[in-house]
Amino acid sequence: MNEVGDRREAARRWDAAENQPISERERALVARAYALFDCFYDQLGEEHELMRKARMLRARKPDEQSQTAPTGNTLGSCVDNMIADQIDNLPEAVMLPEREETAQSAEEMDDVVSFVLYRAGWPGKYQTLMEDAIVAGTGVAQVFWDENLEEGEGMVNVLAWHPEDFYPDPMYEDIQDGRGCFKATHTSVAWVEEHYPQAKGYVAGDRYARADEDDAQTPEGDTRVTLLEFWYKKYDAQAKKTRVHMAQVAGRALLFSIRRAAIGRGSGNRRAVTLYHHICWLARRTKTEVPAEFLEVAEKARFSHHKLSREELQPLQDHADQLTRQLLADKRFWRQFLYRVIYALG
């Protein structure tokens, strides 16, 4: 059986994720994510392999070069000179106001973004992006909230991600028009279960690992798995707006999904399962424990024929509201921006 067939046969054998207590809407989301990723993975495989070979050529030592190829020093010098040219023209953050009355705010944001880029070591990240663009053909920058910065208080950070671990929609030239995009992280089942305890027991290994990865990189008794961060759009016909959502999956299990609107929709049982996952996410942010009885409610909602009443749901809703208020009580600008704008909690 070929590689594609192997992956799809493995998908049929991944029974662990089938027992994960998630709603049918969330299960459909996982199926959609893997259907798209299989498509992107197959179509972008050749391009990604060329990127890896180009990166290997850049790192190759002079004694490993072919006798008929340009020497490593020549190629390296050309690349180094091109990177230096780009660094000499390092772009600065400039916020353009949409209206005259927002000019002052835009000017203040110039200083804020410049400060964030400075703390994130932007010149070094930009150099990596330019090297990726010259060697591999493109560069990928991720802007995210890093909870480890500022002595655990968190701050916006920038990461240069390997282009061969990024999967835009190959059907479209403009990434904004695509059906979605994926960021892949190659890790292990043990790591995923440690960082996403609500998915423990539901994550299985997969076959998306890179061909050049050695089994020795995975501890004995553990299994390799690919964590996918799936960004996709949903069109709201009533509001006539397109909304961006994100979900994280690994081994066919759902780890996280930003679909807060689903909490207030559907049957009581569906809302209970969605609320429970939302509480798990809030608990990680607030560094608190999830009450054990909430898991019992979520499992009853998922596996039994009992229809939960509004009264049975209320403790979960109250706890979620309490944790949300705890997060929003932090009045620092970046925290407010993260929770209210990025995560839409406020």
Features of the shown structure:
5-stranded antiparallel β-sheet; alpha+beta; globular; two-stranded antiparallel sheet; 346 residues; 47% helix
The percent range for helix content is: 40-55%
Distance between the termini: 51 Å
Number of strands: 7
Helix and strand composition category: alpha+beta
Strand percent estimate: 15-25%
Number of helices: 10
In angstroms, what is the radius of gyration? 23 Å
**Widest beta sheet: strand line-up:** 3-4-5-6-7
Order of SSEs = HHHHHEEEEHEEEHHHH
Low-pLDDT sequence parts: none
**Oligomer status:** single chain
Query: What form results from the Cα inertia axes?
Result: globular
| Mean pLDDT over the residues | 81
- How can the largest sheet be summarized? 5 strands, antiparallel
Description:
The protein is of the alpha+beta class and 346 residues long. Helix content is 47%, strand content 15%. Strand 6 and strand 7 form a beta hairpin. Helix 3 (72-88) packs across helix 5 (122-135) and helix 7 (268-286) packs antiparallel against helix 8. The longest helix is centred in the first third of the chain and has 36 residues, at 24-59. The chain is globular.
Secondary-structure blueprint of this entry?
Blueprint: H1 3-13, H2 24-59, H3 72-88, H4 103-119, H5 122-135, E1 140-146, E2 155-161, E3 166-167, E4 181-188, H6 189-195, E5 224-236, E6 241-250, E7 253-257, H7 268-286, H8 292-303, H9 310-328, H10 333-342
Helix pairs in contact: 3-5, 7-8, 7-9
